[in-house]
Amino acid sequence: MMSVEFELAITLLLVIGGIFIFIGSFGLLRLPDFYTRLHAPTKATTVGLGSILLCSMLTTFATEGRVSISELLITLFLVITAPVVAHILAKVAMHHKVPMVKHTQYPERVDTARMQQPPVNPSSTKLDS
Amino acid sequence: MLDYAILFVSGVLGIALVMNLARLLMGPNAPDRILALDTMCINSIALILVYGMHSGSPLYFEAALLIAMLGFVSSVAFAKYRLRGDIIE
Amino acid sequence: MTRIFPQPFHTILLTVVWLLLNNSMSPGHILLGVALGIVIPILCQPLRIPQPKVVKPLKLIPYVFIVIKDIIVANIEVAILVLGPMKRIQPGFIAYPLDLKEDLPITLLASTITMTPGTCSCELTQDKQFLYIHVLHMPANEQQLIDYIKVHYEGRVREIFGC
């Protein structure tokens, strides 16, 4: 049977995971434009899901005494695939000229990025706008 | 204590899925909708895992793994279609 | 030897993933996993694109831990930004000058950038000189961020691949 401290730790992990996933979805709903929206789900959900998977692994270990590793496989798979999806969606957004919020800095770089060309004003030289 | 936490997290994940659905319906552009679908996949994986913990059955991990793989492939296929107008080049 | 095991690392990886998928260590599964691990790399050999070798595999371990720490910090930062007022967010694009030349190290770096603090890699230029990154909250001086990525991630990736 689980000790109280262990159960508390598992519960905390589960609740933290749930809250992070909630924040990720909330960001998806709330943030102003597509490029900023891209940040919330790709990051928050990965860590949220990771902590839920860790919690599930610990629960299986505590109640049944066997180590279940398939959860690690899901975590690994998501960590590898989440950046790929984010990258290809950013490409799609650039291709379709998705509108940006007004105060985005250096919006002209999207045009050169769509052509896969180097920027007109590289970051190394500071620009006062 | 863990049972209450599972109940709480299931509720939170349900609300998160509803918010994703709202973005899927509102989403001004195609990439927004694809992103919402991808997030829905990840959230449903979490929901399935939490349900698996509740029922104590190892069967749900297989389902979660399948949804993770199908979600990735379908997101990339959608995005590729929007990018080139063709899935296989 | 190289004809039977064209990619020894992939053979081990496939066997381990097969065992993880089945969640068992029975001799039958080990045998089947090893068989798959030998056959699949041989079948995939013609499809392979030559990639630079991982020179120092042990350097991957501290890199993974640093990235995990950064991911956790990034999540808290992004969560605060999402919950805070929207006017405070200053999104922007930066063009990051790359020192890496090969595909695999650039992929690793771009994935790391996407997973860490408020940055998301968007596009690579054709000549592989610049990586366009979208930043959720731009610092006052963008050079600061470029230097951070250069020292923290790109330097370590270069050490791992020895280029």
Describe the structure.
The complex is a heterotrimer of chains A (129), B (89) and C (163). Chain A is mainly alpha-helical and 129 residues long. Helices cover 69% and strands 0% of the residues of chain A. In chain A, helix 1 (4-30) runs antiparallel to helix 3 and helix 3 (39-64) packs antiparallel against helix 4 (70-95). Chain B has 89 residues and is mainly alpha-helical. Chain B has a single domain, classed as Helix Hairpins, CATH 1.10.287. Chain B has helices at residues 2-26, 30-55, 59-84. In chain B, helix 1 packs antiparallel against helix 2 (30-55). The mean pLDDT of chain B is 87. The two termini of chain C are 28 Å apart. Chain C has 5 helices and 3 strands, in the order H-H-H-E-H-E-E-H. Chain C has a 3-stranded antiparallel β-sheet, covered by helices on one side. Chain C has 2 domains: 8-47, no CATH class; 57-161, no CATH class.
Structural class estimated from helices and strands of chain C: mainly alpha
- SSE order of chain C, one letter for each helix or strand: HHHEHEEH
Strand order of the largest sheet of chain C: 1-3-2
Q: What's the number of domains of chain C? A: 2
Tell the overall outline of chain A.
elongated
Oligomer: heterotrimer
SS summary, helix count of chain A: 5
The averaged pLDDT of chain A comes out at: 80
Biggest protein-protein interface?
A-B, 50 and 47 residues
Tally of distinct domains of chain A: 1
Q: Given the structure, what is the number of helices of chain C?
A: 5
Number of strands of chain C: 3
What Rg of chain C, in angstroms, do the CA atoms define? 20 Å
Question: Roughly what percent helix of chain A?
Answer: 55-70%
Unreliable runs of chain C: none
Strand content of chain C: 5-15%
Number of strands of chain A: 0
* Rounded radius of gyration of chain A (Å): 20 Å
Overall mean pLDDT of chain C: 82
Helical fraction of chain C equals 55-70%
